[in-house]
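Retro notes, structure queue

What went well: the backlog is down to a handful. What didn't: a couple of records were mislabeled last round, so from now on we paste the full input next to the output in the thread. Example, using AbrB/MazE/SpoVT family DNA-binding domain-containing protein from Natranaeroarchaeum aerophilus:
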Amino acid sequence: MVQVDSKGRIVLPKKLRERLGIVPGTEVDIREENGKAVVEPEPEPEQVIDRMERLVGETGAESDLKPLDDVAPSARRHREAVDRGAREDSR
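Corresponding output:
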């Protein structure tokens, strides 16, 4: 059994850390699910990029997009931010 200290910290048992691949410096997501605390290691950046690329590929061709005049302002800002990021990455 693990105890919570006065600052709210816990120590994950070594065997659990090893099974989950949690090493010093690993970022974790802590959230509540159905009244329980869930600790999950954040995915590696490469995994996030792979997932994003897969999702982008599944959304269809750029020609399927509505003209910017026909979308909500928040969608327009998001699309413009994505376009800026793509241009910066291609440099």
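Agreed that this is the format going forward. Reviewer comment attached to the example: The beta strands are 28-33, 36-41.
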